[in-house]
Write a structure and sequence with these properties.
Blueprint (H helix, E strand, L loop, with lengths): L1 E7 L1 H18 L5 E7 L3 H8 L6 E12 L2 E10 L9 E9 L3 H11 L5 E9 L12 E5 L5 E2 L15 E5 L3
Parallel strand pairs: 2-3, 2-5, 5-6, 6-7
Antiparallel strand pairs: 1-9, 3-4, 8-9
């Protein structure tokens, strides 16, 4: 496995966060929100996005597992649940990337059963060509082609999360 090229620069990512933060600020005027960071990949995006949001917000974290290597197992389990109740709250799930959408559709079902006042999704990146589950993503940073990417929180078997740009990982040496 090798890093072949920068697909999305940190400057472009910053502009994406600014745009999404402004949109969320506009849409939630007069409300308070809870941002749910889906660990671990979304931590970098969450940290940037929350500072662009100008309405009062709380944060919470959840960890689900579905991936080993580059392939989705289709099997999603809750590794770490939220600390607080989301009942009656305006919730936005913050995801790093939507690929098959299986993780998210499972997560949404679970969160809906906890009766939030509203539930939306904000994903930094989206690979629409790979979608298997029918999930509506309310806020999308950028649609990307079907490539395995790393950096900006995204990993390959635990590595590369600390790269500031989004890079393409290829199988060739
Ligand atoms: P899904 O269930 O197939 O939509 O997978 C979603 C999760 O898989 C994301 O939240 C990421 O953690 C991980 N993932 C999907 N595509 C990539 C990628 O290209 N690079 C790194 N992680 C990915
Ligand atoms: Mg993730």
């Amino acid at each position: 496995m090798k890093i072949s090229e920068v697909l999305i620069s940190k400057e472009e990512i910053d502009a994406i966060c600014e745009r999404l933060g402004n949109q969320i600020t506009k849409d939630y005027q007069g409300k308070e929100i809870v941002l749910i960071c889906v660990l671990r990949g979304a931590i970098v995006f969450m940290a940037d996005l929350m500072r662009k949001i100008k309405v009062p917000c709380e944060i919470d974290f959840m960890s689900v597992s579905s991936y080993t290597g580059t392939k989705s197992s289709g099997d999603v389990k809750i590794v770490k649940d939220l600390e607080d109740s989301i009942e009656g709250k305006h919730v936005i799930v913050v995801e790093d990337i939507i690929d098959s959408g299986l993780t998210l559709s499972h997560l949404l079902k679970l969160l809906k059963s906890r009766n939030p006042a509203s539930l939306k999704i904000c994903a930094c990146f989206d690979k629409p060509d790979r979608r298997m589950a029918d999930v509506h993503v309310d806020y999308i940073g950028k649609q990307i082609p079907d490539e395995f990417i790393v950096g900006y929180g995204l990993d390959y078997d635990g590595h590369y999360r600390n790269l500031p740009d989004i890079c393409i990982l290829t199988e060739s040496d």
